[in-house]
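Issue 218. Parser rejects a valid record. Input:
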Amino acid sequence: MTGSGTDLDLLLALNSFLGSNDLHNKRLWEFLGNSSLIRGFPVFFSLLALWFSSDCIERRSRMLAGLAATSLAVVVSVWLQHHTTPHIRPLMDPALHLNIADPQWASTFGRQGSFPSDTATLFFSLAAVILLENRLVGCLCFVWVWVVIGGVRVAFGWHYPSDIAGSFILGPAVVYSFINVPYVVLLFERVLKLFENRMYIVHTLLFFYLADAFNLYQGAQKMVFSILK
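Output the parser choked on:
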């Protein structure tokens, strides 16, 4: 199914930027869309800065609960892409005649459903974790995700705007739900107290988690798929 109304209009408007013959313009869009460093640096820098800014166990417990919720939100988003298809991924829809910066992109997606965006869900969730600890930095991260991740993915035809909006609702909703359950935060607080004299172990595990999240959980996905085979 093809998107309709405002959803389709916004998609075509953003995608029209790729129709320019200006080579520098296309390279800029591709750089923004394909550079994991540009995409993730502000969000992951903020997370680590907040984590190491103090030794407050309460803050770190909330952040760990938020990161656990982030993982769950991404799993839910991927499940929804597999089991609900309100529309197919725009660049796979021949009826749209989109400007595609790289024709090989269509073969890189393993599923036609694109609602909601799992990448945007990941970053909106992380931005929500940041917002709960620092409102200004969190708001800036939300703006960054909307523009650099959401806007670019729509322009490339990877997602409809509604896919990004769905992620904006799903990710933060799961994060806020987890953090507002006292027992979840208390569980992480007890774990941190247990490792209070061995925090280097927690820091190391956090590093590996964020490194995989930075690469969109590619390591975790490969491990799960190999187990399920």
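Fixed in the parser; the record now loads. The two ends are 31 Å apart (CA to CA).
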